[in-house]
Amino acid sequence: MEDSRSDEQRPLLDGDDHLTETQPLSWTARNQSIVLALASGACAAFNGAFAKLTTTELTTSFANGVARLLHLSHIQNVIEVIVRSMFFGLNLVFNGVMWTLFTKALTRGNSTTQVSIINTSSNFVITAVLGVAIFSESLPPLWWLGAAMLVAGNVIIGQKDEGSKDSSSIESTSSSRPTSPESNAEDAQGTYHRIPGVEQPVFIPRDEKDDDDVLDLETS
């Protein structure tokens, strides 16, 4: 009998305890719009790099190197056309991926301004890094000033959005609190009487004649 009772009190599933516990979301899950905006900016930077490689003279030297490596120096022009076509195809692919990620970031984000600035900032920084790494471009002091201003703008907009979220959550919780009729104080000139079928209390003023009748009964 004791074994049967213990079996009845035992939970049906051993994993029921962990089902009730809520796992905290990671930073990526809580900020999907920011991650998508960063990814779209990176795709835009690679899109620009591949577009530049489609028309620059650097691609010619790269194609000639590939032709010599493959022992196809007699068809260098064909290899160059193939390489430029590959860069142009990658340009179109990254352009489509960039717009897809940017649209998802706008739909999942709370602020279109924040998504746009993060997208532009990541595009700006990654484009500069690719320019230095691939095209040997130099970064003047004005570029560093612009990058610092973009970072400061992202921080200010992020703090502003967090403050608006906190204020809206406080307002929603305060408006959702029910007001009970019992919390109303009784007035000196009347009382609250509950009438069947009416949820809110009804204020019924007293008549001065009723007070006179009460005084007459007490004196009598």
Fill in the keyword field for this structure.
mainly alpha, 220 residues, single chain, two-stranded antiparallel sheet, 9 helices, 71% helix, 4% strand
Secondary structure layout plus pairing:
Layout lengths: L1 H8 L6 H5 L6 H4 L1 H24 L2 H12 L6 H33 L3 H24 L5 H35 L14 E4 L8 E4 L2 H12 L1
Antiparallel strand pairs: 1-2
Characterize the structure shown.
This protein is mainly α and 220 residues long. It contains nine helices and two strands, in the order ααααααααββα. The chain has helices at 2-9, 16-20, 27-30, 32-55, 58-69, 76-108, 112-135, 141-175, 208-219; strands at 190-193, 202-205. It has a two-stranded antiparallel sheet with strand order 1-2. The protein is elongated, with a radius of gyration of 36 Å. The model is unreliable at 180-189 (pLDDT under 50).
Structural class: mainly alpha
What fraction of residues sit in β-strands? under 5%
Largest β sheet strand count, sense and barrel closure: 2 strands, antiparallel
The global form is: elongated
Q: Identify low-pLDDT runs.
A: 180-189
Oligomer: single chain
> How confident is the prediction overall: mean pLDDT?
75
Series of secondary-structure elements, N-terminal to C-terminal: HHHHHHHHEEH
Q: What distance lies between the first and last C-alpha atoms, to the nearest angstrom?
A: 76 Å
Strand order of the largest sheet: 1-2
Brief description of this entry?
By secondary structure, the protein is mainly α. The protein has helices spanning 2-9, 16-20, 27-30, 32-55, 58-69, 76-108, 112-135, 141-175, 208-219, and strands spanning 190-193, 202-205.
